[in-house]
From TrEMBL:
Species of the source: Chitinophaga caeni
Record-given protein name: Thioredoxin domain-containing protein
Glycoprotein as UniProt keyword: no
Positions of transmembrane segments: 6-24, 31-50, 56-77
Keyword Transmembrane: yes
The entry's keywords: Membrane, Redox-active center, Transmembrane, Transmembrane helix
PROSITE patterns (UniProt xref): THIOREDOXIN_1 (PS00194)
Length: 241
């Protein structure tokens, strides 16, 4: 009887937490519910099985939990996070890009449309001091080497509402020898380019030659680096063929 009570004490709070998630945090589905729910439930069941003192069943169950945990860390969770980071609800105004003005590191204004060069273009929005932006920069360097540079380019756009001009210039100096294209935009310019309830960085928009957004992706974590590169390269190659 005590075993059942312990199991109930563990599982009921989990159910209540998930109920709260379903009501107030639907964006956490399926990572919080039902996926993360499985771990405390598995732990409670493990305690119950061990208390029954069934050696063979305990060994089999421990092996199962170990395999599930490893697969979750390296396969299931990265795929879920990556899937949620590709957005379909972000409105990107492709037409307004023609008149959007950016500043290059020499503070000379230029239209984004003059930079596109009839190539598939990845616009990478970032701000200085953003850890995920720095992590993603390494992934984008790898991506740039794997795609035909005659048909594809990356343009970095720094959010001037978050980063000062001096910070932008200082940060950009380490990119000068890498032939990177990086520019500065004020808050109004970025707002004209895309509309979101909140700005999430890094934000990536891939444009085809007709200035149509074919992919929108926000956030980054090295946990899904390889999956991100594979999916993004496939999207780019599809557009340049």
């Amino acid at each position: 009887m005590k075993r059942e009570k312990i199991l109930t004490i563990v599982i009921i709070p989990v159910i209540l937490l998930d109920a709260t998630t379903l009501i107030t945090g639907s964006e956490l589905i399926p990572l919080r519910f039902p996926f993360a729910t499985i771990f405390p439930v598995l732990g409670a069941l493990l305690g119950y099985i061990l208390s029954c003192r069934k050696l063979l069943l305990s060994i089999v169950y421990i092996v199962f939990i170990t395999l599930f945990t490893v697969l979750s860390a390296y396969v299931f969770i990265p795929k879920l996070i990556l899937q949620k980071s590709f957005r379909n609800d972000v409105s990107f105004n492709g037409n307004s890009i023609k008149n959007a003005v950016l500043l290059n590191p020499d503070k000379h204004p230029c239209y984004i449309s003059s930079l596109l060069e009839k190539k598939v273009t990845l616009l990478e929005f970032y701000f200085v001091g953003c850890p995920p932006c720095e992590m993603k920069k390494n992934a984008l360097d790898s991506l740039r080497k794997k795609v035909d540079s005659n048909k594809f380019q990356i343009i970095y756009i720094c959010d001037g509402a978050v980063t000062s001009w001096d910070e932008f210039v200082k940060h950009g100096k380490k990119w000068e020898d890498q032939q990177q294209k990086y520019f500065y935009a004020d808050s109004a310019t970025i707002t004209r380019l895309y509309q979101m309830e909140r700005r999430s960085y890094p934000l990536e928009v891939i444009l085809n030659e007709q200035l149509e957004a074919v992919s929108v992706h926000y956030g980054y974590n090295d946990i899904f680096r390889d999956l991100y590169l594979e999916r993004t390269i496939n999207i780019i190659n599809r557009e340049i063929q």
